[in-house]
Design brief:
The chain has 2 helices and 12 strands; from the N terminus they run ββββααββββββββ. It is mainly β. The strands form 3 sheets. The protein has a 6-stranded antiparallel sheet with strand order 1-2-5-12-7-10, with helices on one face. It has a 4-stranded antiparallel sheet with strand order 6-11-8-9, with no helix packed on it. The structure holds 2-oxoglutaric acid. 2-oxoglutaric acid binds next to strand 5, strand 8, strand 11 and strand 12.
Amino acid sequence: MRPGQTPGGRPMSVQTVWLGIRWTSEGYRRESSAGVVVPQMPEALTSLAATAIHDVSAMTEHLRFDEHGNPMTESFSPDMALVNFYDHAAKMGLHQDKDETCQAPIVSLSLGDTAVFRLGNIETKNKPWQDIELASGDLLVFGGPSRMAFHGVPMTRPGTADPALGLSGRLNITIRQTGLP
Ligand SMILES: O=C(O)CCC(=O)C(=O)O
């Protein structure tokens, strides 16, 4: 894992690993670069995300169709995952996920310590926002009207992970469709 970087190139307290495709401050890149190893996207994550989209699109019309009017369950094709590790002091500022060139939803899986996930609005980093506790095993899909919402993690709750996991801290895996050709 390596310290994450903001789109502006500033270091983050969260440490990251990319799977499938690497992220750079200039956007996603398929080609590797010296010293950067990008493991393949595991099939287990692709199929977990596809199942999540299938289940959620049955519950809400917002995710039933993609931006081209195709049924989301057929067009959803994630090609990258971002694995973030939060130690007890790490947090992530409010931001929008706008490097993807398609509007496919993002599937987010949390493991380990509970986090306060802040879901804001699509216009500014200011209120209104909603704080949602994400516990280990929680899966969140943000798509439709929330796809471009500012979001972040102002804090985790250290020590809340099940000791049986053997994880001191929190892992978050976001599974994404980059839209790269
Ligand atoms: O850790 C989380 O729950 C959010 C991660 C996130 O916002 C991101 O990867 O863009």
